[in-house]
Amino acid sequence: MRLIVLGLLLLTACSAAATATPTEEAPPTAAPLAPPLSLIPDPAAIPSATSIRESDVVGGCSNPFAGADIYFATRYWPTTDFCLHSVDYSEIFSGGPPPDGIPAIDNPVFESVEAADEWLQDEWPVMFFEAKGEARAYPLAILIWHEIVNDEVAGQKVALTFCPLCNSTIAFNSVLEDGMVLDFGTSGNLRNSDLVMYDRQTRSWWQQFTGEAIVGKLTGTLLEMLPSQIISWADFKQNYPDSLVLSRETGYEKRYGDNPYGGYDDVGRSPFFPVGTYGNELPPVERIVALSIGEIDVAFPFSRLAEVGVVNEEYSGQPITVFWKAGTSTIFGNSGRDVGSTGAFLRDFEGQILTFEATDEGFVDVETGSLWSISGEAIDGPLLGSRLEKLVSGEHFWFAWSVFRPDTIVWQP
Known about the structure:
- This protein is mainly beta.
- The model is unreliable at about 1-55 (pLDDT under 50).
- It has six helices and 27 strands.
- Strand 8 and strand 9 form a beta hairpin.
- It has a domain at about 285-410: Rieske Iron-sulfur Protein, CATH 2.102.10.
């Protein structure tokens, strides 16, 4: 029992921080972040495998938790079918807050670039999402307090998600293949330190990192991932001056712009929480941009990208390019440390394979001499106005990607 309680104390440190009052300064390097005591769950409230009641079970089995150590509360989920699950329940932990204790944004309000520029700093990161030519920015200064935005962009229902513990921004199509439209909330639970979402239609649980339903009626269903990027506010406002930006008018009183996770991504840190086996090729919180191309998973460490600026490679027969640009700060460090931003694209443009080089002004293709932005748009030269096809990619911490994708190739210059 002591080990279980200790694990819960550590586990709640980061997830609970999303609802806690942020500190003004980052904690000392490599010092543990102390969880607010009021948000540490009472161990007596966490059911064990021997204390599951018949009323906690929905579905066609007598006890889906038999033989498993359970570290999450079932009382919040009277209609979730726990008989259906694709992962071991022992891998799921309460993060502290109850369902929706970290509140998703369900009715997002947007403002102009001019209005947002009054509070956003140039180097601050924003989640950039575009559908049918309609571009929007979702500042991580807001997402870090809410983790999910249920939105509609150009007529497309989408869920924009951010897991601070994994540094993972992922955009999903909220419409399933059968036409069911879902909207999502935070379950309060974690698996491999990653956000476990739930849908409000079936109360199924979803792994944010993979987009897979892991518990409940929709177990095994996959959400479609959509391309998105993290870029600096300066790059977004320069390239998309007439677009919309998520406003701080969320209906909640949060200290947007302050960071409750200050110091979490210091290079010397390791994950606080129980996670599976992750690769040792890189430090656990090394930032990577990762792609799945055919059967190949590949990760590009930011530290190596910063040395070259651009990568031209081919995987599974697809020629791809990865851009890296300085000027985007970490959302985690209150000091505003510059970590840069990335973009991943196909370099097959209308049948011509382009080869890119990094310059002070942007990215130039050798074949036409056109200049391209971090978001994959030609901003000068013969191909002015053209766009590269954006790949589904994600900027993550290495430990998070490698625990879910253990056979990943780590790119070397």
